[in-house]
Amino acid sequence: MSNDICGTTDLDREICPHCNPQPEPEPAAPSEPGLYPGIPESVYHGDRNSLSSTAARRLLDVSPRQWKWERDNPKPKSADHFDLGTAVHTLVLGTGPQLVDLGVDEIRKDEVKTEVKRIRAEGGTPLRSKHYRQAREMADAVRANPTVADWLASGEPELSLWHRDPVTGVMLRTRADWVHWLGRDSALIVDLKTSSEPGPEEFRRSVRNYRYHVQQAWYQGAFAEHGITTAFVFVVVCEAPPHVSYIVELSPEAVDLGERIARRAVDIYAACLKDDVWPAFGTDIHHIDLPRGAYLQEEYAQ
Fold this sequence. Notes:
Blueprint: E1 34-36, H1 41-46, H2 53-59, H3 64-72, H4 84-93, E2 99-101, H5 110-121, E3 125-127, H6 129-143, H7 146-152, E4 156-164, E5 171-183, E6 186-195, H8 200-210, H9 212-225, E7 229-238, E8 245-248, H10 252-275, H11 292-301
Parallel strand pairs: 2-3, 6-7
Antiparallel strand pairs: 1-4, 4-5, 5-6, 7-8
C-alpha cells in the first residue's frame, strides 16, 4: 500500500523524511573564541571541549578521575528535583526554559511523575505550585530593588563567551547572567543568586563554600580576554519569606584569591587534557589529621 502524501510504501514509511520528520539537530558549541548571545543552555553546558567556572571549581573538590567520570556521566534530574534557582533566573532575566506549574504541591502520583518527565524531555522546568509561587515572589523581590531594576532595564541575559587560556591554550567558557553595558568596551556583570543566607554578612559563608570569588575572577578574566573592562556584583535573593534581596560586591583581595585558585584549576585541567591522563589519589598512604576546629571544640568543652 502506498502513502497518499509522498507515494512511499508502508514498509518504507519509517525512514521516509516526509512521513517521519526528524527533529532539527541541536547546534554545536562554538569552537572559536568570541562573544555568543543566544546560545541554548543545553549547548553551553553540554560542551565537552572547554572548561567552565563551575566545572573548574568542582575539579578542585575531587580527583581528576572522579571529575571526568562525573562530566561523562551526568545525573538525570529526578521527578522531585527542585528547580528554584532556574525558575527565579527565568523570571528575572526573561530567558530560559519554560516554567510549568504542575498544579499540585506533591509529586507522588504516577500521572504527575509522568507529566514531570514529559516536561523535562521537552526542555521545560516543572514546578510544584508552592515552588512556582515562591519563585514568582522571589523574582518580584529582585525587580522591586530600584538599583537592580535600573541595571535590568538595559543589557542582555545569558551572554556566553569562549576564550583560550593565555597560559595553557585550553578553551574556557563563561556564561554571564546579565551584562549591563556601560560603553562599547565596558560593562557591569550582574550575577543572580538564590540563598538561604539572611543578609550580606552571612552570605560570606556562601562565597567561601561555593567559591563565588573564583567565579567572579573567572568571569572578569573572560571579558578582559575580549578587551572588555568589567565591574561585578552579586544580586542575592533570600529563599525564605519575605524574600528580601541585597547586592554584594567582593573585595579586591577576595577576587585576587579567586584568580589564583582559578589558575590552579585550569592548570590541572590542561595537564590532564594534554595526555588524556586523569589521575585519582595515587597508591601512597595519605596521613591526615582532624580539622583544627575539632581540637578547639574539645578545649572549650573542658
